[in-house]
């Protein structure tokens, strides 16, 4: 069982999927070993082959590159519950078909200001299709991994459509149930109750998400696994208690009935919650534990865990791309390890306290390996929140939902559940304000493995020698060696922030940020991309935040960056349009020498528009030069040339994301850059980079590097080394 699981788990670290012929070779090598003493190797290979084959099926079902950006008519059924929390309706279209060509079976679509879309309906839609694509940086949420794990082969925006069939089946009644719950007065927490009852978290606000993340209680609202386990456990204990007190009929064996009823409740609640991957995982785990309790109790607690792991991996190997998968199974394994082999009986409160301590400490290496922020208040918050939600809110919400047909009863219970949730959220908000989540510096693999051994030592039984050594083994994970440029060199990272710009410049002892990425609706690139990348690199404070100008695609994330990184100085090209909290100084002609690196800024005093007022930054290290011009237009480029005669650069960040209003031919001839860097969003609506600009670069032999195609771009200025793109060492699920 362990060998088979290890083979499938290895999929998570595969950079490129093996070709089919190599998979067949591995099968032929594994089969003869299956009945030998090397069966461990055989099972490991077979598990790996099955996982790779399943993953290849997901990649084969992606949108063909030739259709990227095209608008096509297609038909499909709306799956699950659409997200109507914003101006756009977002939903998954399944069983997609088109009379013209073969398309991916599942797509994630958005419809701006569209009509009401209900789960279970069948639609005919005109969709502008896009390849599954996400921002590729060295930290932050991996959207492409999430899409691949969901087997979503394309994304797109709906331009027009017509409903072909009304909602039917489970999706239809779940939608009707959601609308009924949202109409109930639940003390302002009806959206959270829908998340608990039906597994639809779209009703939670961005503030709610942040509070849950800061306090480490996200699993209570997002992952319904603990709720499934609780309901099954309560029913099992109810039947067991009746049997112990002689209430259960003596002619009917209580144990099979308890296990059967508990499993039925678990799977029924899973169906209510939409049967997403976390819920399926919990249902499988509960079923395996009940089967173990019924038939295989002598086999030990590790047997149902391994059985559930194998069932989940075999049915969907792509779950290894989900952080929730690793955290949930790690938590169960830690609880088994933390409580097995202990003598004596523990009091209930002490057992609960130890359980929280085991998970808070034990999940640290896994959380850091996954790049997740660490909650400082998580242990205290979970001590209060878990029983509050599991024993009060969830039962009230479920009973209230099932009794809505009884006048006053259902609505009263839901109001009580909402009031209890509101009290909890207020408490969590207070904890989050005192101790927000902490994003640690990324640690190397050896430090994480050492920390894992250290955690197991600390949680081992008291008789195990060397437990105190475990504390020392954690230190390299929290204080990893930092990689900083040598004096005289500058590390320049053009971050992949979509349709916007953010450039991180690090010298031996300082860090500068040029622009902070875009902000649109609830998406703030400063908070979700720029800050996590800087913290993963060990940057705790900025020496300079320079904003080229105040347009949202350049300064939208500035406030979030400023609050997190507390820059010692902020400079902007349009200080009057920036938020007052930034306290920025106007950009002017200045020069700094930091760790042997020369940085100089410039602003066009005669500028009449926003783009023309862009603050320009020139960076020179060991004679190698990189120029950042923001959205500087052609006439302002001429003004810069006039102020800098005989200028030459090695690297040029294409102005205005490759728009034809920048990067003029005369500008390029004067600068003679070796390479141009373009920061833009994939399939952006502006058509950046413009074909004429691309032609200008190619006509002068200028090499082009694009964040939409290569991910974040890294230039070690002063070392005369080739540029590195994040997607060069990408995983198999990332577009290369």
From TrEMBL:
Keywords: Cell membrane, Membrane, Transmembrane, Transmembrane helix. Pfam families: Competence, DUF4131, Lactamase_B. Gene3D superfamilies: Ribonuclease Z/Hydroxyacylglutathione hydrolase-like (3.60.15.10). It comes from the Bacteria. The keyword Transmembrane helix applies. The keyword Transmembrane applies. Residues 499-682 form the Metallo-beta-lactamase domain. It is found in: Cell membrane. It is a multi-pass membrane protein. The chain crosses the membrane at residues 20-52, 218-240, 252-272, 326-345, 357-376, 388-406, 445-464. PANTHER family: DNA INTERNALIZATION/COMPETENCE PROTEIN COMEC/REC2, RECOMBINATION PROTEIN 2. NCBIfam families: ComEC_N-term, ComEC_Rec2. This is DNA internalization-related competence protein ComEC/Rec2. It comes from Pseudomonas triclosanedens.
